[in-house]
């Protein structure tokens, strides 16, 4: 888990602003993936909030100046990442 979680503002499927808490970054086959959970606003939830939130896995694309997140469109890639995360295999935490 990330020691100092961040809130990231993204754009949802219908163009709405969505705030997500960055839970963890994992690297699989030299590709970074972000595990995030949706939050109500741009404020981190308190530590006593329910930890059973749904996680969203997104592919990270880094450039020198920016980092973008995208939905994993390929079912095989998504299943590979989800399996690695649930098994704890092949993960390199950043």
Could you walk me through the main structural features you see in this protein, from its secondary elements to its overall organization?
It contains one helix and six strands; from the N terminus they run βββββαβ. The protein is mainly beta. The protein has one domain (6-44, 51-93). A hairpin with a 5-residue loop joins strand 1 (6-11) and strand 2. The longest helix is centred in the last third of the chain and has 13 residues, at 75-87. It is globular and about 30 Å long. Residues 89-94 have low confidence and may be disordered.
* Order of helix and strand elements from N to C terminus: EEEEEHE
Strand content: 35-45%
Number of helices: 1
Total beta strands? 6
Query: Tell me about the biggest sheet?
Result: 6 strands, antiparallel
The dominant shape is: globular
Helix content: 10-25%
The whole-angstrom Rg is 13 Å
**Regions with pLDDT < 50 over 5+ consecutive residues?**
89-94
End-to-end Cα distance: 9 Å
Mean pLDDT: 79
- Structural class call reads mainly beta
Number of domains: 1
What labels describe this entry?
mainly beta; 1 helix; 94 residues
Write the topology of this structure.
Blueprint: E1 6-11, E2 17-28, E3 31-39, E4 55-62, E5 67-71, H1 75-87, E6 92-93
Antiparallel strand pairs: 1-2, 2-3, 2-6, 3-4, 4-5
In short:
The chain is 14% helix and 45% strand.
